[in-house]
Amino acid sequence: LPTFLGLGSPVISFAFMGSFSSMPRQSHHHHLTHCSKEHSDHNVSSRRDMLSWGVASLVSLTSAAQPTNAFANKISDTYDDRPKRRGPQPKDLGVGKRKDMVGEEYIGLKPCGPAPNCFCSTDDKEDDPEHNIPAWTWPKNLDKTQAFEEIEKAVNDYKPGQGNIDGGGFEVKKSEPGYLYAQFESLKQGYIDDVEFAFIDGKGHNVVQVRSSSRVGYLDFGVNAKRLNYIAESLRASGWTAPGVDFSAHRDYAIQNGVQ
Q: For helices 144-156 and 223-236, what crossing angle results, to 10°?
């Protein structure tokens, strides 16, 4: 039995070859044609796979070679070679239906999360005093269109790098009577912050709601507060009531982010 098992493979192989050689000519030809077709199909498939891989690699290299800074008014090219962490743009920006902490609906801007890197005037002051800031009021001699033209001017006059923030520049992405949306970028890491100004019916005839928030990370090291305070100061010079962020009213934010 051991000898038989040892010879098993050759015996079976010869038996198979014998069966193959005794096949009718037509069947033999059909078998060879079938094998050749499979081999050809395999080569085509392999070439197709290699071509797909090559195209994907080329796309990847092309994407990697694109400019790393988002905005033309950045203050320096020094950190262009660093990978950036911009984060995805939130899908629910703008004015919309929101829910407060007890589940009641209201119309407002996107609420802040728990992290100390966001301020929003439509967040309820009682529910979330650390993120709530006062809304801004435009002078009574302006209408809504004029008020938002002044907001756009104040934003466009913003100086990238002021207070050592937003060195990557900024850009107004949407501007219309009643709503303005802009993005600001940090210089080194490329963090993007979303900033919004909105008029909401029922919240005052000359009142603008304000929001500034980081997309990624937990702390913002005072960036959102400094940005809003800079823009608020510019508008106050034009007669607006724009309180900005008072660190004495946001002690937890100030302590965690190391700002005064």
A: 120
